[in-house]
Amino acid sequence: MSIATTRLNEVRTEVHISHMLNPLLDASIAQLLHSQPDKLLELVAQHGSPLNLVWPHAFALNTCALQSVLEQHEVQYSIFYGAKANKSHCLLEAAKASGIGVDVSSIYEMRAALRAGVPADQLCATGPAKTQDFHRALVHAGALICVDSLEEFDHLKTLLETRVEATKARVLLRYRPKSCATSRFGMGPSDLLVCLHLLTRFRAFIDFEGFHFHLGGYGFDSRAQAFREVADFIDAAREMGLNPSMIDIGGGLPIRYIEPQAYERFLQNDNTPSHYYNQSVPKSYYPYGSNLTASQWLTLFLESSFSPRQSIAQYLKANRIILALEPGRSLVDQAAISVFRITRSKKLANNKTVLFVEGSSFSACETWFASEYLVDPILISTAPTSATPMQAYIAGHSCLDDDVITQRLINFTVSPKAGDLLIYANTAGYQMDLLENEFHRHPLPRRMVATCCTQGNYAFSPDY
Ligand SMILES: Cc1ncc(COP(=O)(O)O)c(C=O)c1O
C-alpha cells in the first residue's frame, strides 16, 4: 500500500507500508514519513546508512503515561530510566527534563547521566558486576546502589571502611524471586537475612533504603508475586530496627510494536518455515503485539492483590513504601527509527531474492539471539518503480551466510531497488545500537536527534 508520493528534483518518492506486520507509528514520525519521505533520503545522503533518528518527545510522553497511572493510584514512586536500552545522550536529557532518575549499570552510563544533568542522588546502580571504581563513584555521588550478593556487600563494606570522606552508601538489596531460583542475579532468603543483620551493624557506613528485584519476561503477575515475597523482608527489616522505604521492581514493562490482532494473525497463519529464507521458524520472540501497553501493565500490577483484602497499591500506601521502577524499553517506545539504504537486489540460485543494505545485523540485532524483529520495514522508493510485488530477505555487509538482518521473507508490494530506503520503526529499545560495531571498518552509524521547529517540520542535529 502506497501512503505518500512527493517529488524530489523531479524524482517521485513513494512510501510503501506492509500489509502484514505493519509497525505502529508515533504521530510525528508518521507525519514525517507521509509528508516528507525525501527528507529521509537527504539525511541518509548526508549522514550515511544506517542512520538512527531519535525522537525524545516520545520519551516524555511515555514517562507521563506511567506517572499518571502512579498518581491515579496515589502511590509514592521513583522512576529510574534503564539507560542500557539505548545509547542516545538526548534520551538521558529527556529523562532529566522529565524529572526522573536513571538506572545505570556501569561507571560510563553513570558519567553520561551526570553529563546530561541528572542529579546524582537520582541515579540507581544495578547489575552484579560493579567495579571498585564504580562503587567508589556511586558512594561519592550519593547514588543508590543495588547490592546483588553477599560478595558485593563485602566489597562495598571494605571500601567504606577505608574511605576518607564521611559520605554513607545508600543501599537497596537485590532479592532473587522464587521463580528464578538458579539465576545469577540477586540473593535468596538466607543471604538476604545475613545482609540485613550486617546492615544493623554498619549503620555508620550504610543507609539501607529497601529492596530491589528485576525479572526476565514481561508479565505483571510474576512481578506481583515477587513483590509479595519481598514484602516479608520489609517486615523482617523493620523488626530489626532498620527503616526500608522502597521496593524497586526493575523493568520489563511491555511495548506494543504491532496491533495485537495483526500480530496474532501472523503467528497463526504466516509464521511458517516457508516464510523464512533458512526455512526455520525461531523458537522465541519479544511479544511484539503485546496485549498490554506499559500503562495497562502498571495498572494491573498496582491493582493485583497483595493479600485477600489489600491491593499492591493499598499495601504501598499503608506501609509508606515508595514503588520504584526501572523501565528501559518502555520509556523509549517510538523514540527512534533506523534507516537503511538499499545497495542491491540479488536473485539467488533457488529463485529467492536478497536485498543488501548498507549496514549490518549489528544495527538490527535480533537474529543474533536466534530470533527475529517481527516488524516489517517501510520501503521508501525513488520511482520509477516496478509495480511487481516480490519477497526478499535482508542482509547487510556481513560475510557469514546466517548473519542477516532478517531471515524472514518480507513481502514488498513493489520491487525495491538500489538507492531506496528501508525504515525500521521503533528501534530505540535494545535494537538500533545494542550490538553496533565497526565490522569491516564501517564507521558506527550516526544518531540524529529530531526536534520539532515549526508545525510538522523537524530539524535534525547530531546526538553527542
Ligand atoms: C536491573 C534491570 N533493571 C531494568 C532493566 C530494564 O528492563 P526493560 O528494558 O525490559 O524495561 C533491566 C534490563 O535488563 C535490568 O537488568
Describe this structure in words.
With 464 residues, this protein is an alpha/beta fold. The chain folds into two domains: 2-55 and 334-462, Lyase, Ornithine Decarboxylase, Chain A, domain 1 (Beta Barrel); 57-255 and 290-332, TIM Barrel. Helices cover 30% and strands 24% of the residues. It has twelve helices and 21 strands. Strands 1, 2, 3, 14, 15, 16, 17, 18, 19, 20 and 21 form an eleven-stranded mixed sheet that branches. The radius of gyration is 24 Å and the shape is elongated. It starts with a strand and ends with a strand. 45% of the residues are buried. The mean pLDDT is 94. The structure holds pyridoxal-5'-phosphate (PLP). The site of pyridoxal-5'-phosphate has 15 residues, from loops.
CATH T-level topology of the largest domain: TIM Barrel
CATH class category of the largest domain: Alpha Beta
Overall number of domains: 2
Largest β-sheet summary: 11 strands, mixed
Number of helices: 12
Could you say what the CATH architecture of the largest domain is?
Answer: Alpha-Beta Barrel
**Rg, Cα atoms, Å:** 24 Å
What hetero molecules are bound to the protein chains?
A: pyridoxal-5'-phosphate
Mean pLDDT rating? 94
User: How many E-type strands?
Assistant: 21
- Secondary structure class reads alpha/beta
- Low-confidence parts, pLDDT < 50 over ≥5 residues? none
Determine the fraction of residues in helical runs and give it as a percent range: 25-40%
Strand content: 15-25%
